[in-house]
Write a structure and sequence with these properties.
By secondary structure, this protein is mainly α. It contains 9 helices and 2 strands; from the N terminus they run αααααββαααα. The chain has one domain. The longest helix has 23 residues.
Length: 215
C-alpha cells in the first residue's frame, strides 16, 4: 500500500508549471490586432477629406477620445473579467469613456438604406455604412471571443458585453477617421445585438455554448 507522502510525490513528479494569465498583456495583444485590422481598412478606404477641419472641432475630438477610450478600457475590463478572482465591477471601467462617447453620438448612418435613381434602386450610404461596420467589427469580435473562450463559461454576460464594447469603441473611432457620417448608433446596435444574441443562445443551449462558439 502506497503511503500518502509517496502518493503526493508520484502525483507531482511530472507536473508542468501553469502559465499565469496576464490580462493586461492579453488586452495589449488584442489592441495591436485591432490597430492592424482597422489600419488596413483605413488605408483601403482613405482618410475623410475634411479630417483636418474636424480635428479642430472640440465635439469631434471629445467624441473620438470617448470612442477610443471605450474600446481600450473595455478590452482591459474583458480580460480582467476572465479571471475568476477579479471583481465584476471591472465591467464599469469603460463607463466614463462610454458616457463621453454617448454624449456626442449621432444618427447619420440610420437615415437612408436605399435610393432610387435613373438606374433604379441601389444601396445608399446607410447600406454601405453597415457593410463597413460589419467588415471592421466582425473579425475583431470573433478574435476577442476566441481569446476569452475559457472565461465565457464563468461570466458569459459580463465578458461578452465588455468584448462588444471594446470592438464597438475602436471600430467607431476608426470609422470616424475615414467615414464622413457618424456610425455610432449602427455600431452599437450591431455589436451589442451580437453580444445579446450570443448570451441568449448560451442561456438556452447551455453554459458551455460560448466557449464552443469561440473555440
Amino acid at each position: 500500500m502506497i503511503t500518502t507522502p509517496n502518493l503526493i510525490a508520484l502525483l507531482t513528479a511530472n507536473l508542468t508549471p501553469v502559465r499565469r494569465l496576464r490580462p493586461l498583456a492579453c488586452a495589449c495583444r488584442w489592441l495591436i490586432l485591432a490597430t492592424v485590422v482597422l489600419g488596413l481598412l483605413a488605408v483601403s478606404q482613405g482618410l475623410r477629406p475634411d479630417l483636418l477641419q474636424r480635428l479642430r472641432q472640440v465635439d469631434f475630438v471629445v467624441g473620438l477620445a470617448g470612442m477610443a477610450g471605450t474600446g481600450i478600457l473595455a478590452a482591459v475590463a474583458a480580460f480582467m473579467l476572465s479571471l475568476p478572482d477579479r471583481s465584476r465591477l471591472w465591467l464599469l471601467l469603460p463607463a466614463p469613456a462610454l458616457l463621453t462617447w454617448l454624449a456626442t453620438i449621432g444618427y447619420q448612418c440610420l437615415t437612408r438604406w436605399i435610393s432610387f435613381g435613373p438606374d433604379g434602386f441601389r444601396p445608399d450610404e446607410t447600406a454601405k455604412c453597415f457593410a463597413t461596420v460589419v467588415l471592421a467589427s466582425l473579425p475583431l469580435f470573433l478574435a476577442m471571443l476566441w481569446m476569452l473562450r475559457h472565461a465565457a463559461p464563468l461570466r458569459p454576460t459580463a465578458a461578452t458585453l465588455a468584448a462588444s464594447l471594446a470592438v464597438a469603441g475602436l471600430t467607431a473611432a476608426a470609422l470616424s477617421l475615414f467615414h464622413a457620417l457618424d456610425a455610432s448608433v449602427m455600431i452599437l446596435i450591431w455589436n451589442l445585438g451580437t453580444a445579446a444574441l450570443l448570451v441568449g443562445l448560451g442561456s438556452l443551449l447551455g453554459r458551455h455554448m460560448l466557449s464552443r462558439a469561440a473555440g
